[in-house]
């Protein structure tokens, strides 16, 4: 759920919003084939995130949300809307881990 209580809709538009968070935060998102155990790979020094392009949409989105909590994003470059979505997603993820 996000802050206003609505369920997250796992669709291409939502995936794009998460990609925008990473993009504004200084990362490049790529979709490629690979045998990453977790479905993704983060190249921190190059600031590149690689997602397994053969995974289902919900797996891609879950990977992107997980990546948000492990990368060092540039919040100074983000718009207020992007920062708000980032905080909603990371709070949701923290709540599911408790």
Task: Give a verbal description of the structure.
With 98 residues, this protein is α+β, with helices and mostly antiparallel strands. The chain is 44% helix and 14% strand. It is built from three helices and three strands. Helix 1 runs parallel beside helix 2 (57-68) and helix 1 (12-24) packs across helix 3 (80-97). The radius of gyration is 13 Å and the shape is globular. Residues 1-5 have low confidence and may be disordered.
| CATH level 1 class label | Alpha Beta
How would you characterize the largest beta sheet? 3 strands, mixed
Would you tell me which CATH topology applies? Zincin-like
Side by side, the strands of the main sheet go: 1-3-2
**Number of structural units classed as domains:** 1
Using DSSP, what is the number of strands? 3
Considering DSSP H and I runs of 4 or more, what fraction of the residues is helical? 40-55%
What integer is the average pLDDT? Answer: 88
Radius of gyration of CA atoms, rounded to a whole number: 13 Å
Between the first and last Cα atoms, what is the distance in angstroms? Answer: 15 Å
CATH-derived architecture: 2-Layer Sandwich
Order of helices and strands: HEEEHH
Number of helices: 3
């Amino acid at each position: 759920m996000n802050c206003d209580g609505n369920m997250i809709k796992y669709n291409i538009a939502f995936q794009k919003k998460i990609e925008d968070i990473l993009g504004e935060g200084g990362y490049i998102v790529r979709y490629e084939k690979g045998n990453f155990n977790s479905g993704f790979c983060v190249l921190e020094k190059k600031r590149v995130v690689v997602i397994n392009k053969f995974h289902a949409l919900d797996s891609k989105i879950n990977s992107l949300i997980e990546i948000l909590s492990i990368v060092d994003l540039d919040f100074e470059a983000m718009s207020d809307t992007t920062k708000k979505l980032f905080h909603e997603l990371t709070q949701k993820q923290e709540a599911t881990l408790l």
